[in-house]
Design goal:
InterPro entries: Acyl_CoA_acyltransferase, BioF2-like_GNAT_dom. By secondary structure, the protein is of the alpha+beta class. The chain has eleven helices and 13 strands. Strands 1, 2, 3, 4, 5, 6, 7, 8, 9, 10, 11, 12 and 13 form a 13-stranded mixed beta sheet that branches. α3 crosses α4 and α6 crosses α9. The longest helix has 16 residues.
Length: about 350
């Protein structure tokens, strides 16, 4: 028997999860209760959390959601969330995962909840297809369409020099010519001066204002305490002109943030710093995967070997009339783009 239940409070989730959503049980930072707590602090007033758990055979599946409107759910996520998916405990096999997801889908279709539609993004393709199948079996209309891309590098046991030899010649030449101009520091703990340098560079970059500097600093401090933080800073004559924020954990390096000062582009500081960060991650940290987050920027192809699609999953409860206009629009949009509608 699969048991499903809803929660509207993260403290209640923590009580029943009993550590299964903590760091030592969840390898990915975006799947941890601490991440959802920090994310919840960013949510605008008027939005309520809704967490769904299904449990069977000692395993759990969680879906962390928020009510954007009374009848519409979205992920409990922010611009810092590089991937969103169901969170599992006790490593259920594929069959049990399907049963757990169907139970979540049935629970969310309950009339008492009043849910007409759910939109989830960015979801890795395998998880997106699993969600679509499970919700379809439970009576939902499901539409899966590309949202963005995720570039990754599979190290496959290589050392940095082997990886680097396979990069485009222009990239290698740029690093070789520019690296002598710059001083590189990589910190594996939280350093206040390094963080100030990161914020200075970000403020002088082409990027929009940071969404929540407090969120990001708190995350960096926590990861620094856990030993997973990597902050890289490139300086020219003592001035920081490029900075990057990575985490390294469980064989995976994630590039969370990177920026360079716009007026220092001629020195290629971001490129030189990236080469140093990749070398550190591969040769010293021994990672087997490097994840470049979200976005299909052309330059990422020079560094990475694999592009994965991150999907948007739209789910419609057609038993509720308020779902019909949204479903019709999404259905027509998907047909125009040649996407699957079920």
């Amino acid at each position: 028997m699969v048991k499903g239940e809803c929660f509207d409070d993260l403290d209640a989730v923590a009580k029943v999860a009993r550590g299964t959503l903590d760091r030592n049980a969840q390898p990915a930072p975006f799947d941890r209760l601490g991440w959802f707590r920090r994310t919840w602090a960013l949510v605008p007033p008027g939005i309520a959390p809704l967490m769904i758990r299904a449990r069977s055979d000692g395993a759990d599946a969680w879906l962390f959601l928020a009510r954007e409107r009374r009848d519409r759910l979205v992920p409990l996520a922010s611009w810092y969330t590089l991937a969103f998916s169901p969170v599992y405990s006790a490593t259920p096999d594929a069959l049990l995962k399907r049963r757990l997801l169907r139970a979540i889908a049935r629970r969310l279709r309950a009339p008492a909840l009043g849910i007409a539609s759910i939109s989830l993004s960015p979801v890795p393709d395998e998880e997106a297809q699993a969600l679509a199948r499970a919700f379809r079996r439970a009576g939902w209309l499901s539409i899966v369409r590309p949202a963005t891309a995720n570039w990754r590098l599979n190290v496959n046991g290589r050392i940095f020099s082997e990886y680097w030899a396979a990069r485009p010649g222009q990239l290698r030449s740029t690093v070789e010519r520019k690296r002598t101009d710059l001083g590189i520091e990589i910190f594996d703990h939280f350093d206040a001066a390094a963080w100030d340098a990161y914020e200075q560079v970000y403020g002088e970059s082409w990027k929009p204002a940071e969404g929540s500097p407090t969120f990001l600093r708190n995350f960096a401090e926590e990861e620094g305490g856990a030993g997973t933080l990597r902050i890289g800073v490139a300086r020219l004559g003592g001035r920081p002109i490029a900075a990057q924020l990575w985490t390294v954990e469980n064989g995976v390096a994630i590039i969370h943030k990177l920026a360079h000062a716009e007026d220092a582009r001629e020195h290629s500081p971001g490129t030189v710093l990236s080469a140093a960060m990749f070398e550190r991650a591969i040769d010293m940290d021994g990672v087997q995967t490097i994840d470049f987050g979200t976005g299909d920027d052309a330059y990422k192809a020079d560094w990475m070997d694999e592009k994965r699609v991150l999907q948007r999953v739209d789910l419609f409860n057609l038993s509720r009339p308020t779902a019909w206009p949204r479903a019709a629009w999404a259905w027509l949009s998907a047909l125009v783009r040649g996407r699957r509608v079920d």
